[in-house]
Amino acid sequence: MDVRLNCRVVNCHSRVRLIRSMFYLLLALVFVQLYGTHGKEIRIGGLFGGDEFDIESYAAFRIAIDYVNERDDILPNDTLSYVMPQSSKIGTFETIKRACSLLQEGPVAVIGPGTTTGVKAVSPIFDSLHISHISSAATDPTLSVYSEQFPFLFKMSSPDTYQSDALFDLIEHYGWSKFGIIASATDYGRNGLNSLQSQALKRDWVITAVLYFQPTCGMTAESIDSMLYQILSKGTRVVVLNCLAKYARIILDRASELEMLGEGWAWITTDGVTALGSVYDDCGDVPLYLKGLIGTRPLFSAGALYDDFSEAWKNKSKMLMDEIRDPTCPNCTGATTGSVSCLPPGSELGNNSQCEVDRISYIVRVFDAVLATAYGIHNYLRDGWVLSPPRFDDDICSAAELRPWGRGELLARYISRVSGDGASSKIGFTNLRYPVIATYDIVNLVEDGWQTVGKWSNDGGTNELSTNESVYFPGFTETIPEDSKVDLSNIKLRVITIVEAPFTMKRVGVTSKEKNKYEGYCIDLLNKLQERLKFQYELDLVPDGSYGGRDPVTGEWNGMVGELIKGNADLVVAPLTINYERDQVIDFTKPYQDLGNLILMVKEYPQNNIFAFMDPFSTTLWLVLGAAFIVCGLATTLVSWLSPFGKRGAYSSGLDVVRDKYKPERNVLNLWNSMWNTFSLWMMQGAQVTPNCLSGRLVYGAWYFTVMVISATYTANLAAFLTVQRLDSGVNNLQDLADQKEIKYGTVKDTAIYEFFKIQVTEPYTTMYKYMEQMSANVPNSSVGFDMVQNSYGKPKLQRYAFIYDSIPLEYAANQQPCHTMTIGRLFNQFGYGLALQKNSPYVELFSLEILRLRQQGYFNTLYNKWVVSGSCESDASASTKTSVAQQATINQMTGVFLLMSCFLALALIVVLFEYCAAAKNDKEKDASVTFSGSFVRRCRSIQKDVRHNIGTCICCQNDNEGSIQHDLAIQHELAIQHELTIQHELAAQHEVIAEIKSGDNNKTVTGRSDFTYDNVLVESEKQKNGSNLSQM
Q1: Which of the four pLDDT bands, split at 50, 70 and 90, describes residue 9?
Q2: Which of 226, 761, 990, 1004 is most buried, judged by most C-beta within 10 A?
Q3: pLDDT at 611 over 80
Q4: Binding-site residues
C-alpha cells in the first residue's frame, strides 16, 4: 500500500512538471509572437544629414533594403524595413537629436552617419545602448586606433591611413620629395594625412607647408589667397589637396587665376574630391585648367554585386532622392526645407548617368553596409537566437541611467564575423572593424572625367602600386613636373629686423615716412642680396622687440622667430643666433658672421701712482735682482784680484819685470768700480773697464745675459702696465666675474646667450644663471645693458654693471665715445649669425649659396671694418679687447735666469784655478830654473800677501796708500834677494865653464848652450858683476 501510495505521489509530481513545462513553452511562443521578429519586420535605422552626400546615401540605403527583401537567400522569412527621422536642420547637435528620435523606433542597427564628425557625436549614445551602427565614409584613423572607445562602430571604408600610404607611394613613384598640403579644418582634413606626414618625415622629405581652411559655403577666392601665396612663396610645385569636392572647386578656381594649374605643377587630390562630389558641373565637359589632376579613389566596382547595384541605381535613385528633396528649391538638398547645399546651378544629381555613379563611390558602401547588417542578422537567426527589438523610453537621451539592449552585443559579434558578396568588394571586417582589404584606384582627370590610371592595394600588410605610363599633369602634359622651383625674381618678401647697433640702426634726421629709415651692417647685407637675387622686400621691425624665445608654459615662440612661425614674415635679416632650439622651428642660412660672447665693463678711473714703474716686477724679484747685482760686482772684484791675468792679480803675483806694466791699472776693478761697471751694464750703457782674464769675462757674460732678459721682461711688462692700468678691475675673464660678488652682471632675456646659461650644467655657467635670476640682473634689450655699463663709470664696484652679450655689438660699443668701456676675457660659446626663413622654405639654399659667395669675396670683412671697428676709440678698443690684464713678473718666472748666472759664476772660480796653472807654466817656460809648483806657490803667496795688506784700503780707492807702498818694498826686497842668489848661481856656473875652456878649445860651447863661447861668457860675467854691484848700492 505504501508502495502504491509512493507511485501515485511520483506520478503526480511528474505530471505537475510536464504541465509546468508546457506552460512555459506556451508563454515563450506568446512572447515570440508578441515581441520576436522572426518571420516579421526587422527595423534598420538610417541616420543621414541634409547635404548632397546624405541625399545620395538615403537613395542607396533604400535600394539596399529593397534588394535584401527581394533575395530569397538572405532573411527568407523576414522583411527589412527602415526608419529615418526627418529634419530641416543640419549640424552636430541636430544629428544627436535625430539619433535619439531614431532609437525610440526600436532599430536593431543603424546605418550612418557618413562623416567622422557625425560618428563621433552619436557613438557614445549607440555604444551605451549596444546598438550597432555602420558608417559608409567615416575614415578618420582615430576611429580605428582607439577602437575600444567605439565598440559598436563598423566602418565600410578603410581608414585614411591606407589612403596616406597610397599617396606616399604615388609621390615616391614620381620622384618627388617636397610638397605642400592644403586641407579643411575638420576631422577629415586634419587627421586624414597624418600618416603621410609621418612617413615623409621618416624619409627626410620636406613638407613645405601644411595649411588649413574653414570649410563654409561662403568661401571666396580672396579668403584662400593667403594659403596659395604661401605655396607660391615656398617654391612648392606639388600640392596635396584634402577636402570635399565643393570646397576644392573654389580653391582650384582661384589657383587657376594665380597660374598655379599650368605646366610645371602637380595637384594630388584625395577621395573627398574624387569620390564625394564633383569639381566640375554635372559631369559635363571638364574645364581645361582642371585637366591633369591626379588622386586616389576607393575602389568601388570590384564586388560581385556591383552590377546589380548599378542597375538599381539607374532605375531608382532619382525617384528616391526626389522623395526628400524640397521641390521648391532645385538646388537644395535638405531633408525637408531650409538646408541648402553648395552645389552650383545645374549640378543636381540623379540623371542616371554612369558618370554620376563614378563620382559617388562611397554611396556604394551604404549599399554594402545594409548587406553587412543583413548578413549578420541572417546568421544570428540561423543559429537559433531570438531577435527581440530594443525598447527604449521616449526620453532615452535624457535618462539618468541607460539600460543597454540585451541582444545588441551578440548581434554586433555576428556582424563583425560576416563574409559575403558586396557591391564595392567582398564584405568582411578586421578585428578593428574596417574592411579586410584596402584598395584604391589611381585616377587622372581628363576630358571624360576621372580615368583610372593605376591601382594601389594593401593585402596582408603588403603595399602594391601599379600605374599606367600615360598620365597627364596640369597643362595637359605628360612631362612629370619637378617638386619645387626656386626663383626670387620679382617676388616681394616680408622682411623683419630688430634695432641693434651696429647691425640695424635708425638713420639720424630721417622721418618715419621715408623709405630708407635704417642703416647698418644688416641693411647693407640686405641690399646686396637684393641686388644679386633680384627680389623686392618690405622691411619692418619686429613688433615686440624680441629676438625669439619659447614660453616654457605654452611652448609658443615670441619675437622674430615667432613671426616666422606664424607666417607673418618671410625673412629675418638681423643678428639672430643660430642654435638648436630655433633650428627645430625655422630654417637658417649658412652663417654670415662668426663670433662668440664677451663681457663689457667700464675701465678703471685713472689714479696717480708715483711708484708705478715698480709694478712690472714683484717685490721678491726686485730683491733677488738687487742681490744678483751685488754678487756680480763682488765676483768681478774677486776674480780681478785672484786671477793671475786679472788687473790686480797680474800686478800682485807677477815678477818685477812685468809689474810696472800692470801698475797703472792694478786698482781699476776694485769693488767700487766693479759695482759701477755692473750698474752700467744693467742700465745698458756698457762697462767702462772690461776684465782681461777669462774668469772675469765669464762673470761679465753671466751678468750680460741676466741683464738682457731682465731688461726685455721689464720693458714688455712696463708697456703692458702703462697701457692697461685703467683696465684692471680685478675681472679678467668669465670665471673671475662669477667668483666675485661686488659687480652686478646680466644679459638680455629671451636671447640665445640667455638660453645658453639656462641649459648649462657645468660651472661657472650654472652659478652665473642663478645669480642673474636671483638679482634680476637681466635686461630687456642690449641698449639698456650698454647704458647700465656706461653709467657705472667712476663708481664703486658695488654700483657697477657688467654686460654679457655677443662680441660684435660689444666691440662696437667699446669703440664709441666717451670710450669708457672695454671688453673682457676670451670668446666663449662661439656661434654664428644667420638669416632666418620659415621652416622648409625653398629659398634657404639660394640665400646660403649667395652668402658663401660673399664670404669668399671678403664682403663681410668689409662690412665688419665699416660698421664695427671704425669707431672713434680704436686705440682704446684694441687695448680693451686684450684677453687678460698685465701680470707682474715673479721670481718663479726668472729662477732659470739666476740659476744660469750662478752656474757661470761658479765656472769663473774654477777657471781662476786653471789660470794659476797656466801662469805657473808660463813662468817655467821663461825660466828653466823655476819649477811649476814653485811658481804656483809663489803666485799664491803673493796674492795672499796683497790681499792681506790691501783689502781694507783698495776696496774703494784707486791710489796706493802707505800700506801698499810698504807691501811693495817688501816684495821688491824679497825679489832682489832671489835675484842675487840666481846671479851667484849663474856666475859659479860661468867660472866653471871658463876653466874648462882654458883647458881646451877657446871656442868650445857649453853643452846645450850655443851662445856660451869663451868670449861671450867673459862679457856676460862682466855685466853680471856690474849689475850685482849696482843692486848692492
Answers
A1: very low
A2: 990
A3: no
A4: 575, 577, 582, 806
Strand duo 438-446 + 449-459: pairing: antiparallel
Largest CA distance in the chain: 207
Interatomic CA distance for residues 952 and 935, integer angstroms: 27
pTM above 0.85, yes or no: no
CA pseudo-torsion sign 747, 749, 755, 757: positive
Are 821 and 600 within 8 A, CB to CB?
yes
The secondary element (H helix, E strand) that includes residue 625 is: helix 619-642
- pLDDT tens per residue across span 246-290: 889 889 988 998 889 988 899 999 988 888 777 777 556 788 889
Q: Which amino acid is at 952?
A: G
- E strands, 777-835, in order: 801-806, 821-833
φ, ψ for residue 43 (rounded to 5)? -95, 135
Amino acid, single-letter form, for residue 242? N
Burial of 287 (0-12, 13-18, 19+ CB in 10 A): middle
753 contacts 829 by C-beta, under 8 angstroms:
yes
d(CA 716, CA 661): 46
Whole-number Å distance between alpha carbons of 875 and 634: 47
pLDDT of residue 293: 93
Q: What is the DSSP string of 952-1011?
A: TTSSS--S--HHHHHHHHHHHHHHHHHHHHHHHHHHHHHHHHHHHHHHS-TTPPBTTBTT
Q: Which three cell numbers stand for residue 870?
A: 671704425
List, for residues 926-962, the tens digit of each pLDDT value.
Answer: 665 666 666 666 666 666 666 665 655 455 444 444 4
Name the phi and psi angles at 103, rounded to 5.
-65, -25
Type of residue found at 215: P
- Binding residues for L-glutamate, by number, are 575, 577, 582, 806
Cell (9 digits) for 850: 649667395
In 3D space, the residue among 787, 811, 792, 786 whose CA is nearest the CA of residue 881 turns out to be: 811
Joined grid coordinates for residue 714 = 721689464
What value does the CA radius of gyration of the chain take, rounded to a whole number of Å? 57
